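Reading is simple: each integer encodes one residue's backbone shape. The lines below illustrate:
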Amino acid sequence: MTPAIKQLTRNDISFTLHEYQHNPNSSSYGLEAAEKIGVQAEYVFKTLVAQTDNAILVVAIIPVSSTLNLKQLAKAANSKKAHMAKPQDVLRSTGYVLGGVSPIGQKKQLATFIDSSASQLTSLYISGGKRGLDIELSPNDLYCITQAKWAALTS
């Protein structure tokens, strides 16, 4: 049981687990998840960790079929610039490895921003905290448990 699952259970939030056999040669963890779970890519969201120009780590949750706009993330985080965080900083801060980073149950809860496209969905899929495990839940529950902010994060 991952920290994400434990936190959802503790907070009595409804969710569904989706496990699949992860292929280590996959070029995109998120697109692989969509294919193996059998859902359209716009319902599967990836968790990205970036660092702002004032050295603060932040989380961006965007559709796997989209690209993060770092300028828009920086603006949402009240910063001038942002760049992708180093893998070792992501692991140290969240407790999760790349390809399995969940926005829920992180060692240190980072400021979190969810792409506003998610607010139109009834459910979405995020990493469950390890490769080959996704969690389906409502965008509103994700918003609440991560204390997130909605923002336009993609180009």
Summary: The helical segments are 3-10, 29-37, 70-76, 87-94, 139-146.
